[in-house]
Design brief:
Blueprint (H helix, E strand, L loop, with lengths): L1 H20 L16 H10 L6 E5 L5 H8 L3 E6 L2 H14 L4 E4 L5 H4 L5 E6 L10 H11 E12 L1 H5 L22 E4 L15 E4 L4 H10 L2 E9 L11 E3 L5 E3 L9 E8 L3
Parallel strand pairs: 1-2, 1-4, 2-3, 4-5
Antiparallel strand pairs: 5-11, 6-7, 8-11, 9-10
Length: 275
């Protein structure tokens, strides 16, 4: 099981500098104190007022969403297992003059690394859960990090998208991978990355897992959270099906032909029950 950590960490360590240098992440725009990432702008109507909240962003990558949440008034910290990503996140925080702390740790070690602090808000962004082999331990981490009455905010790519044949150019939507969590990982080879870059990467192999909507909800309920929102969206913030999607405003992508066939992403919110 340790192999997946080594493979996936090498993959993200190598890509973090290319992501930070890309126009897609737009580090330079964060000089403007009002600038927010596309992802957080999309999330904002459902996030509501986060001013004064103490929040943690799990699997924060290079920190653009973490810093955007801080700009909305939350007192944020971020956690990621990639040292390379956190170098870029701290550089961005300095550029943006944002008071955000970043911690290096595997997701499942978050409560210990964060000193068993309890938070008002646990935020998890798009493209995070597929790197975790088990969803129930993730839900336990979320519960441990939330104070009673604290809130989880999750926007994620829909598990139907992750089960699709993403190499098809025919326009057909073919389910070829498991929708449900499986013991064995999906072994994925990725030559490049999801931003425009000329960088040639050495590390191309990753291990990934899918988690069905029902599995995610059930895990959270079992860990003492109450579901308060579940919304499915007809867009997501990367070109998940190359050649079959069109870009939209705000960094989103949507299936070109009959997009109503496909749930693209979802937002889930849940609150930890008071003791």
């Amino acid at each position: 099981m340790t192999k997946y950590r080594e493979l996936n960490r090498a993959f993200w360590d190598e890509r973090a500098p290319a992501h930070a240098a890309s126009a897609d992440y737009g580090f330079g725009a964060f000089v403007d104190p009002s600038h927010l990432s596309d992802v957080v702008r999309f999330d904002r109507p459902r996030l509501g007022d986060v001013r004064g909240m103490r929040g943690v962003h799990l699997q924060c990558h290079i920190g653009t969403d973490t810093i955007s949440l801080a700009r909305l008034g939350a007192r944020m910290c971020g956690l990621d297992f990639s040292a390379s990503a956190l170098v870029e996140a701290r550089r961005l925080a300095n550029l943006a003059q944002a008071d955000v702390e970043f911690h290096e740790a595997e997701l499942y070690a978050a409560p210990e690394v964060l000193g068993n602090e309890q938070f008002d808000l646990v935020y998890t962004g798009v493209g995070a859960l597929c790197w975790l082999p088990r969803i129930r331990p993730w839900a336990a981490v979320v519960s441990a990090l939330l104070r009673p009455g604290g809130r989880l905010f999750l926007r994620e790519g829909h598990p139907v998208v992750f089960a699709l044949d993403q190499s098809s150019r025919s326009g057909e939507l073919r389910l070829i991978d498991s929708y449900f969590e499986s013991t064995a990982p999906v072994e994925v080879t990725t030559e490049g990355t999801y931003v425009a870059t000329d960088t040639q990467f050495e590390h191309k192999q990753t291990h990934q897992w899918n988690h069905g909507i029902g599995e995610i909800v059930t895990a959270l309920l079992a860990e003492g959270l109450s579901l308060t929102q579940l919304v499915e969206h007809d867009s997501l913030p990367w070109e998940a099906l190359p050649g079959q999607m069109d870009p939209l405003a705000g960094g989103e992508w949507r299936l070109r032909d009959a997009p109503e066939r496909l749930p693209h992403s979802f937002t889930l919110q849940a609150v930890k029950k008071a003791v």
